[in-house]
Write a structure and sequence with these properties.
The structure holds 2 protein chains of 2 kinds. By secondary structure, chain A is mainly alpha-helical. Helices cover 38% and strands 9% of the residues of chain A. Chain A has a single domain (21-155), classed as Alpha-Beta Complex (Sufe protein. Chain: A), CATH 3.90.1010.10. In chain A, strands 1-2 form a two-stranded antiparallel sheet. In chain A, helix 3 (96-109) packs parallel to helix 6 (141-155). By secondary structure, chain B is an alpha/beta fold. Chain B starts with a helix and ends with a helix. Classes of the chains: A mainly alpha, B alpha/beta.
Chain lengths: 157, 408
C-alpha cells in the first residue's frame, strides 16, 4: 500500500498527501511526541493521551466479540460509522500505553472515510517515536489493535 | 571456592552490549532463556565451519566426526544428569519431551478412565498434551491446587489426587513463582500409589544438579536453552523399564530398521524416538554448555541466585503498590520473582523497565491455570541466573522506584 492509494475521501477529513501515510490532522499530535526529550517523556505523554481518548469504550462494554486477541494486555474495539458516514473507533485497553496509542489512532481515524481507514498503515506510531509499538511480536497490543481496526473498516465498506 | 561473577560474566559476550537507547543491558529474563557462553557459540560455529555433515548417515570423515560429536554430547549430557546415554532421548526441548511421554508412553499404556495427575502450577507444556490425550483417549486429568497464601502445592489434596492414578506430572520448579516443589516426596508418594512420575525440570535443571538415577522419576523433561545451551534442543530422560513400554511418536527416517511397501520395523531404545536428521549443532552446543556448567558447584550457584532474588523481593516489597507472587525468601526458591504493581499494568511496566535497560518477562508465562488460581491475568517477572550481580539488582530496584514514582 502506498500513500497514493490512501487519499482522503469525500468527507473532507483524513486527507493524506504523498508525503505522509497518516491524516494531516494527526501532524500536531506527532509533533507533540517528537518534541519530547526522551522515551520516558513520550511514555508519559502516551499515559496522558490514554485519559483523553475521544471515543472510549467503557469496561462494561468489553466482551469476547470486541476483544483484540493476541495482546499481552486486554484491548477492545468497536468500529462503526457515525451519523455523517465517518468512521468511529471506540476502544479501551487495560495497558495505558496501548490505550494511549488507541486514543491517538481514534484521533486519526474518527470521521475518516472507512475506505481510507482500511488502507492506512501504522507508520504514525513510529513517527511518534514509540519504538516498542512496532516490534513484530505476536503479542504486540498496538499492532493487533491497528490490524483489527483496518479489517473492521474494510467490512464497513 | 566462591563464585567469581565478573569472571563468569566475561564468558558471555552479550552481557557487554548496550541497547539502542544507549542503556547497558541488564538481563533478568533468564527463566525464559539464559544467555550463552562463548564456548557454546564456538562449539556450534566449529561444527559448521569444520565438520558439518549428517550424523549416522555416511562413511566419510565429516560424517564420522559429526556422529562422534553428537554421541559424545549425549555421553556428556547424560552423565551431567547422573544417568547413562541409553536413558536419554534428544528432543527439541522440554515441550517436545513431554509430548513424547504423552504420545510415546501414555498413548500406548493408558486408556479411557485412566488418571493423569497434574498441578495448577504446571506450564502449558505439561497441561495441553494431557488435555489432548483426554480428548483422544478418554483419560481423566486431575489437578492438584496450590495454596495461594504460601504459593505451594496443597500436598493434602495431592495425596487424594494420586489415588488410582497411572501417571503423575509435576513441575520441579515453577517458572512463575520460583517455588521448588517437594519432588522427592512426590516421586515416593506417586510410586507408592502405583503411578509413574514425570518431572518437568525445564526450570529446575538450571538451578540444581538433576541426578536422574538417584531421583527415581520415570520421566524427566529438560530444555537446553535455559541452562546456557542453544535453543531447539532438550531431552526426555526415561527409565529403561518405562522406555520399554513406549511406542514410536514421530516416525520417518533414522528411527527405522527396515521399510518396505508392506510396512516398517523400528529401532530400539532412544533411536526409536529420534526421527529425521538430528539437531547436531544444537546437541554439540548443549554438550559444551554442560561442560561449562560442570566447573561450578550448583549449590553455590543456587545460593548466589537465591541471595539476589530474596534481596530484590524484600526491597521491592517496600515500593508502594508492588505485590510479590511467590516466596523468594525460601532457601529452595529459584531466581524467579513475579510481581505486579497495583496501578501500572504489567505490559506498561515492562516497557518502562525496558527503557532503563532491564529485560524482564511479562504475561501469563504459559501458566494460565496458575494465573487463574492467583486471580491475575499476568505478572511481571524478573528472573536471575549465575551471571547476574547484586549491583544489577540494586540498580533495578532503584529504577523501579523511579518508574513507580513517575507513572503510578
Amino acid at each position: 500500500m502506498t500513500a497514493s492509494h490512501v487519499q482522503g475521501g469525500p468527507l473532507g477529513r483524513g486527507n493524506m498527501d504523498g508525503s505522509r501515510r497518516w491524516p494531516e490532522h494527526l501532524d500536531a499530535v506527532i509533533e507533540e511526541f517528537q518534541a519530547c526529550f526522551d522515551a520516558m517523556e513520550r511514555y508519559e505523554l502516551l499515559f496522558s493521551y490514554s485519559k483523553r481518548h475521544p471515543s472510549p469504550l467503557p469496561q462494561e462494554e468489553w466482551d469476547d466479540d470486541n476483544q483484540v486477541h493476541g495482546c499481552q494486555s486486554r484491548a477492545h474495539v468497536i468500529c462503526t460509522v457515525d451519523e455523517s458516514g465517518g468512521f468511529l473507533l471506540r476502544g479501551g485497553a487495560d495497558a495505558q500505553i496501548v490505550q494511549g496509542l488507541m486514543a491517538v489512532t481514534a484521533i486519526a481515524v474518527n470521521g475518516m472515510d472507512p475506505a481510507d481507514v482500511a488502507g492506512m498503515e501504522p507508520d504514525y506510531a513510529e513517527e511518534m517515536g514509540i519504538r516498542s509499538s512496532l516490534t513484530p511480536s505476536r503479542a504486540n497490543g498496538f499492532l493487533n489493535m491497528f490490524k483489527r481496526v483496518t479489517e473492521e473498516a474494510a467490512l464497513l465498506l | 571456592m566462591a563464585l567469581d561473577i565478573e569472571d563468569i560474566r566475561a564468558d558471555f559476550p552479550i552481557l557487554a552490549r548496550t541497547l539502542p537507547n544507549g542503556k547497558r543491558l541488564v538481563y533478568f529474563d533468564n527463566a525464559a532463556t539464559s544467555q550463552k557462553p562463548q564456548c557454546v557459540i564456538d562449539a556450534m560455529s566449529e561444527y559448521y565451519e569444520h565438520y558439518n555433515s549428517n550424523a549416522h548417515r555416511a562413511n566419510h570423515t565429516l560424517a564420522d566426526e559429526a556422529t562422534t560429536a553428537l554421541e559424545g554430547a549425549r555421553e556428556r549430557i547424560s552423565s551431567y544428569f547422573g544417568t547413562s546415554p541409553d536413558q536419554m532421548i534428544y528432543t527439541s526441548g522440554a515441550t517436545e519431551a513431554i509430548n513424547l511421554a504423552a504420545y510415546g508412553w501414555a498413548r500406548e499404556n493408558l486408556s479411557e478412565g485412566d488418571v493423569v495427575v497434574l498441578t495448577e502450577m504446571e506450564h502449558h507444556a505439561d497441561i495441553v498434551p494431557w488435555q489432548q490425550m483426554s480428548v483422544d483417549n478418554g483419560i481423566e486429568v486431575r489437578y492438584v491446587p496450590i495454596d495461594t497464601a504460601s504459593f505451594t502445592l496443597d500436598m493434602d489434596a495431592f495425596e487424594v489426587a494420586i489415588e488410582g492414578a497411572s501417571l503423575v506430572c509435576v513441575v520441579h520448579t515453577s517458572n512463575v513463582l520460583g517455588v521448588r516443589n517437594p519432588i522427592e516426596n512426590i516421586i515416593e508418594m506417586s510410586h507408592a500409589a502405583g503411578a509413574r512420575v514425570l518431572i518437568d525440570c525445564a526450570q529446575g535443571a538450571p538451578h540444581e544438579r538433576i541426578d536422574f538415577d538417584s531421583l527415581g522419576a520415570d520421566f524427566v523433561a529438560i530444555s537446553a536453552h535455559k541452562m546456557a545451551g542453544p535453543t531447539g534442543i532438550g531431552c526426555l530422560l526415561v527409565r529403561r523399564d518405562a522406555m520399554a513400554e513406549m511406542g514410536p511418536f514421530m516416525t520417518g527416517g533414522s528411527m527405522i530398521k527396515r521399510v518396505s511397501t508392506e510396512g516398517s520395523t523400528f529401532q530400539e531404545g532412544h533411536a526409536m524416538f529420534e526421527t529425521g536428521t538430528p539437531r547436531i549443532a544444537e546437541a554439540i552446543g548443549w554438550g559444551a554448555a554442560v561442560e561449562w556448567l560442570d566447573q561450578f558447584d550448583m549449590r553455590e550457584v543456587h545460593e548466589h541466585i537465591n541471595d539476589i532474588a530474596s534481596w530484590t523481593a524484600s526491597r521491592m516489597r517496600e515500593i508502594p503498590g508492588i505485590r510479590i507472587y511467590g516466596d523468594p525468601d525460601r532457601e529452595d526458591s529459584s531466581g524467579a520473582v513475579s510481581f505486579l504493581h497495583e496501578d501500572i499494568q504489567s505490559q506498561d511496566l515492562a516497557l518502562l523497565l525496558d527503557e532503563g535497560g532491564f529485560a524482564v518477562r511479562t504475561g501469563h508465562h504459559c501458566a494460565q491455570p496458575l494465573m487463574d488460581a492467583l486471580g491475575v491475568p499476568s505478572t511481571n517477572r524478573a528472573s536471575f541466573w549465575i551471571y547476574n550481580t547484586m549491583g544489577e539488582a540494586e540498580s533495578f530496584v532503584q529504577y523501579l522506584e523511579e518508574v513507580v514514582d513517575r507513572f503510578a
